Amino acid sequence: MKILHSVMVIGVAMISTSALAMEASAPTKPGDQAEAWLNVQASGALASSNPQAAKTIQRDKAAERLMKTYDFPIKESYYGDNFTPGQ
Fold first, then answer.
1. Which of 32, 29, 12, 30 is nearest to 20 (CA)?
2. pTM for this one?
3. Which Pfam families match (predicted)?
């Protein structure tokens, strides 16, 4: 029981230490965190080691949804619209 208590105390200490380290290195300007996430995505540092390709049917459905967006004309101007839902 005493060993379990010691392990728990050490675990809590390690977690709080890592939390303090994260706070110390926290972004200071707006947008820093977003920039960091974009850099992680671009570098592929956290990419899956198990790449998953889309199936043909999934690609076809996605292309179909994209093409459907061209069925509706884009207004010349949104000036004066009240942007309420359902209109």
1. 12
2. 0.36
3. DUF3613
Token pair 């459905």 in the structure block, residue: 61
Split into its structural domains, the chain has a count of 1
Among candidate residues 16, 19, 18, 36, the one with its CA nearest the CA of residue 27: 36
Is residue 33 within 8 A of residue 27, CB to CB? The reply is yes
Judge whether 86 lies within some domain: no
**pLDDT digits 0-9 by tens, 52-72:** 899 999 999 999 999 999 998
* Residue spans of the chain under pLDDT 50: 7
Distance CA 57, CA 63 (A): 10
Q: 26 lies in which domain range?
A: 1-78
DSSP track, 51-87: --PPPHHHHHHHHHHHHHGGGSPPPS--TT----TT-
Closest by alpha carbon to 27, among 41, 39, 15? 39
